[in-house]
Design brief:
CATH class of the largest domain: Alpha Beta
Shape: elongated
Order of helices and strands: HHHEEHHHEEEEHHHEHHEEEH
CATH architecture of the largest domain: 2-Layer Sandwich
Radius of gyration: 26 Å
Distance between the termini: 60 Å
Number of helices: 12
Largest sheet: 5 strands, antiparallel
Number of domains: 3
Strand order of the largest sheet: 7-3-10-9-8
Number of strands: 10
CATH superfamily of the largest domain: GAF domain
Strand content: 15-25%
């Protein structure tokens, strides 16, 4: 068997690999041929298993840690294992009762989302993560500027779906109330019904250009609205909920102090988590990132199981679990999948009330 060859379904190689990874996930110690022969249903001799394991090692699917006689799966091996589970539909069924109870009688968005992150961390004993609903595609409705004092203005942003954002801005001159009304009217006439993302992009373009070419009202609007939209964009990037990260402290796979410290820094800053979850927003169904597949070195010893959740048939956010690469994938994948569907249902119901 060469590295370029595909392991045939039902072959000895597949059976040995799946048996080895299952045992390693359960026990966390390198697995030898004699153990596989005695403690699994492979019905193969230790010598035969040894030969197959040698081929699997040459393919980069398993490896020997240090001088151990046993083998453990590589990232490539885990990927093969998960693909087999997914294609066979071999996901462990998780009882939905305790999931549904979390959302019973809960109608506000914040409680639903916080409850989902908490529940994932408790059920899996790993870290639960969730990105709050994005405003991608949400249309701008209007902006208002209200004078609070000679150098302070309240900017109020309203979207077509009724969401309201406001911020107190410090301005460099004392604007008259009619000037603020004119600036808001000009802005609303220009950007009415545009998506928030498109407004933000156009504002950034204007702010980089020579303001002398703009109408006075537009200069005022761009200056003040630009500050509000920049603040709103930063808030979106930080809109990641994390629950149960302390669960990872007791996992032997994260014994190295520097690695766990780096991981906790990632949970604190949240930017990497936000970017990674956004990747999963682009596709439907459960996404699995094993080690370096995430694209972030800090997560090279982790697996991330994530799935988007939908509100009224539109994907608006992503939830998932971060844990070690050695995890019960069938259980975690099932938990993430069920939670995503229940969260979407709960949020859709909340929107209608």
């Amino acid at each position: 068997m060469s590295d370029n060859e595909t392991i045939a379904p039902g072959s000895r190689a597949e059976l040995v690999l799946m048996g080895l990874i299952s045992k390693y996930i359960n026990e966390g110690t390198p697995v030898g041929s004699r153990t596989l022969s005695k403690e699994t249903e492979l019905d193969l001799s230790p010598a035969t298993i040894r030969n197959v394991m040698s081929d699997l090692e040459m393919c980069g699917l398993i490896e020997a840690p240090h001088t151990s006689a046993g083998r453990i799966p590589t990232q490539k091996g885990y990927r093969f294992f998960i693909n087999c589970l997914m294609s066979a539909g071999n996901m462990q069924s998780v009882a939905t009762g305790e999931f549904q109870d979390v959302f019973q009688g809960v109608s506000d968005q914040k409680s639903i989302l916080t409850g989902a992150a908490d529940m994932l961390s408790k059920i899996t004993s790993f870290a639960g993560v969730l990105s709050t609903p994005t405003k991608t595609g949400v249309a701008f409705k209007q902006i208002e500027f209200l004078k609070l004092s000679p150098k302070r203005v309240l900017a109020i942003l309203i979207t077509q779906d009724g969401q309201v954002q406001n911020r107190v801005l410090t301005v460099n001159k004392d604007y008259a109330e009619n000037e603020l009304v004119e600036a808001a009217n000009f802005f609303n006439a220009t950007y009415g019904s545009w998506s928030l993302d498109t407004v933000r992009i156009d504002l950034a373009r204007h702010m980089r250009s020579d303001h002398r070419d703009m109408h006075r009202e537009m200069r005022m609007a761009v200056r003040m609205a630009g500050e509000l939209f920049e603040s709103e964009a930063e808030t979106e990037k930080e809109s990641v909920l994390v629950s149960g990260e302390n669960n990872l402290l007791g996992i032997p796979d994260f014994a190295e102090l520097e690695k766990i410290k780096g991981l906790f820094d990632t949970f604190k800053t949240k930017q990497v988590l936000y970017d990674l979850l956004q990747k999963s927003l682009e596709t439907s169904g459960v996404q699995i990132f094993i080690g370096e597949e995430s694209g972030y070195k800090i997560l090279e010893d982790c697996s991330v199981i994530a799935a988007p959740y939908e509100v009224d048939n539109e994907r608006v956010g992503v939830l998932g679990v971060i844990g070690p690469t050695r995890m019960q994938y069938n259980e975690v994948i099932s938990a993430v999948d069920i939670t995503a569907r229940l969260v979407g249902s709960a949020l859709s119901t909340a929107n209608r009330h």
